[in-house]
Amino acid sequence: MKEYVFNIYETIDMFKYLIYEWWHSNERKFPWRKTNNSYFILVSEMMLQRTKAEQVEDVYKRFIEVYPDIYSLAKSKPQQVNCIVKSLGLKDRYKVFINAASFIIHNYNGKIPDTRDDLLCIPGVGEYVSGMVMNCAFKKREYVVDTNIARIFNRILDLNLKGEIRRKKEIIEYSSAYFDTENSRQYAYAILDFAAAICKSINPLCGICPVNKYGICRFAIS
């Protein structure tokens, strides 16, 4: 059993501080990060599932130009939506956007809900999208988990979890601790940018990692 200078929650607090400082000089700029429009944020996060942000940017801009609100999307022609989003990959993804818009109109009076349970009822919305929408659109301090965030916690905390770790209770618990902060939206973008630039799934850049520099990453220590 390895012994560490800091306990898990102290490590999370230090990690938050260090990557937030790093992020101020390494933030990626995307149009959906500048808006508070809950519909735009929902659309962007649905597009970002299993797709790199750089691939999404132009598609997102075109999408919200053609469908500026939930009602225009619900009334859209499927082939037109498909023409816009097909470059994102995943078969029949266009149907998810139309179905989600129709569901929100019929069940939530056209308003994006602000609770996880209600968001999870929307077609195409899972734990990751619901968490991002709550933090980014509604300023709620809610956990966000995807494969990238799960990988980071598994590494820095030396959890040694196997399989589909994003669903593990430990990952959800530690993600909840990370996001329990003011400006949780910025902390969401910070950890995602850190995952993309430094803590990659293959060949992580431990040598230039701002967390490793202070010796709190248990993955790097081991």
From TrEMBL:
Q: Which UniProt keywords apply?
A: DNA damage, DNA repair, Glycosidase, Hydrolase, Iron, Iron-sulfur, Metal-binding
Q: Which cofactor does it need?
A: [4Fe-4S] cluster
Domain HhH-GPD: where?
47-197
The scientific name of the source species is Clostridium fermenticellae
Any one Pfam family match given in the protein's UniProt record, by short name: HhH-GPD
Q: Which CDD domains match?
A: ENDO3c
Q: What GO biological process term is on the record, naming one?
A: base-excision repair
Q: Which PANTHER family match?
A: ADENINE DNA GLYCOSYLASE
Q: Does the keyword DNA-binding apply?
A: no
Task: Name the family the entry cites.
Answer: Belongs to the Nth/MutY family.
UniProt-recorded Gene Ontology molecular function terms: 8-oxo-7,8-dihydroguanine DNA N-glycosylase activity; adenine/guanine mispair binding; iron-sulfur cluster binding; metal ion binding; oxidized purine DNA binding; purine-specific mismatch base pair DNA N-glycosylase activity
Q: Which protein is depicted?
A: DNA glycosylase
